[in-house]
Amino acid sequence: MTLTIAPPGALAHPGAPATAPAVELDAADQARIVAVGTAVPPESYSQAELLDIFRIEDPRIRSVFLNSAIDRRHLTLPPTGADGARVLELQGALLAKHKAQGVDMGVRAVQTALKNAGAALSDIGYLCCVTSTGFLTPGLSALLIRELGIDRHCSRLDIVGMGCNAGLNALNAVAGWARAHPGQLAVMVCAEACSAAYVFDGTMRTSVVNSLFGDGSAAIALVAGETAGSVLPAATGPRIVKFASCIVTDALDAMRYDWDSAQDRFSFFLDPQVPYVVGAHAEPVVDRLLAGTGLRRSDIAHWLVHSGGKKVVDSVMVNLGLTRHDVRHTTGVLRDFGNLSSGSFLFSYERLLQEGVVQPGDYGVLMTMGPGSTLETALVRW
């Protein structure tokens, strides 16, 4: 079955040649998203509660927390010491937290995704794990295979350290595996224990990060080929049409997670100009994504943008001409969970499905942003 991306005569999107032809694609060859599942730690905190817990009195830092467009975040906080204050965790304790939370949340997210897909653990042929909040060898994929009892012959991949954009980098690889193995189930899980990457030193640098990120995991299941019906008869999710990427090499240091000698642990850094760098490159990468499809940005019914922070979302909105309604799931996830790093866009995708407004033939754009500075996009069609 051949799929034509746009009806004859459709105008090209802004920035594309007016004569750009519609792309002909064999829908049977495309990977389809069949289910998603999410998981978070049981404990959640309001921004005001966190300020009190960490005894933050600096009015500048309090303002950063309270004006973040975030209401609550799920976190695994340090234990309380004898003086009632939270203990400053050393790097070893942070890595242990990353491992424990990554496995716990990853297991629950995968189980939920499989349940929603009507699939079993024995159906998984490929497992890709994404994380940037710690380092493990063997990787998270090996730990999840053991914990869940997945077939030990399952193909697997670990993507570590790419940051908030990594969910779409990984999805590209997973979709490729699914296309090469029609009818077999591929699963990607993003497990981010962001509280395992926190440094509390009272500076504005670390406070900006500490005000933003939350813990969470999201898993997504894919299958390609018309034979998918024999395994997943209810597979009705969107097909992944294409991907487009952009790395801003002039801003490689704008977002980074590296060793802080003064703190004797890893620390995350965000340049204040990041929202504007990301926003300025949102239009070119989306234009590249839509190039040759005959689609305009106005033809996109659903925008699922990474919940990178209030200023990041606002900058993307302005540069792409999006409305508050377009990014309602992005801002809702930011409000209720904070920035969940690589899996944020899947939390938004889950909310879109729960809303029940998607119609057959609708197009959607998935967008993630992260260190590099990097923007990743994917075009999907229901």
Automatic annotation (TrEMBL):
Pfam families: Chal_sti_synt_C (PF02797), Chal_sti_synt_N (PF00195). Keywords: Transferase. Gene3D superfamilies: 3.40.47.10. Residues 27-222 form the Chalcone/stilbene synthase N-terminal domain. The keyword Transferase applies. Residues 267-381 form the Chalcone/stilbene synthase C-terminal domain. CDD domains: CHS_like. One of its GO terms (biological process) is polyketide biosynthetic process. The active site is at C164. GO terms for molecular function: acyltransferase activity, transferring groups other than amino-acyl groups. The keyword Transferase applies. Belongs to the thiolase-like superfamily. Chalcone/stilbene synthases family. This is Type III polyketide synthase. The lineage of its organism: Bacteria, Bacillati, Actinomycetota, Actinomycetes, Kitasatosporales.
